[in-house]
Amino acid sequence: MKQLRYLILFLLLCSLTAAFVKTASAVPASGFSQQSDDWYDNWGIDRNDAGYYGAIPGYIPNLAHETLGDNKELAYSIGQQFETQYSDKVNRATAILKYIQTWTEYGYDSDNFIRNGFAQDEWAQNADEFAHAFNTSAGVKAIGDCEDMAFLCGTIYVGAGFDAAIIDAPEHCALLIWLPEFSNANDYWDINDGRGQGWIWVEATGSANPLGWTPSDFEDGAWMAYPIANSSEIVAQPEGFQPTSVSTLDISSIPGFPLESIVIGLLLAMGIIYITKKKSSASFITSKGTLKQTH
To answer: Which of 1, 118, 154, 157 is the most exposed, having the fewest neighbouring CB atoms within 10 Å of its CB?
Structure first.
């Protein structure tokens, strides 16, 4: 009987251990180690260095995969909640950016991250670390800089059903999402991935930045875009894409908009503009009085 109790106790301990291991594996960055002057997480990602053209150990773009796929946790679940709450993708995308802008605040790494007594001039948080840092119930905001917000946006948008790409720009990091039906962007980007134009910029570093607004500093397209899949696989040399800016979306590339309809619409618009201009001109001339006879 005693042996049976020991056996049952042993099996319970095994079950608890297995459950703990399964849970712990989903918690990102369980530890950091210092190599030379930089700090590496348990995935081998250098949290102090963005890297060069996506190659590991730099954190762009592979830090995203610490919170996607098998590693998904809080940030991804926030995205799933938005997908459930908003059936319309444009409204969903807008609401996600507003949520992130509400619960995050821009701050410098050197003011907020200390390792072994030294301020970190550069420190990238993954999406779950950043998501756990704010508390909507207590009104606590999370503090981070551009890459922190980009990775948080990336995981939440992927969790909400969007295709996303991390932007690696000079001295900046941001996000693109694929949303060609969005009508208020100042630039619609073709990143030359074969899909055409329809990627729009997500800039969460300012509380008032609207969805689809590309900062003027980056409208030259001198940056790289790295699409992020819902995968936990870290790729040694991920494929990046050089973008092309298109200020006006080519609607003919969207299914359901035949070329003939576009041509007819343009002709109608031109006719309305012509008539309006004639009326305006006539009204202007008539108001002069002495020129009334020329009408």
So the answer is: 1
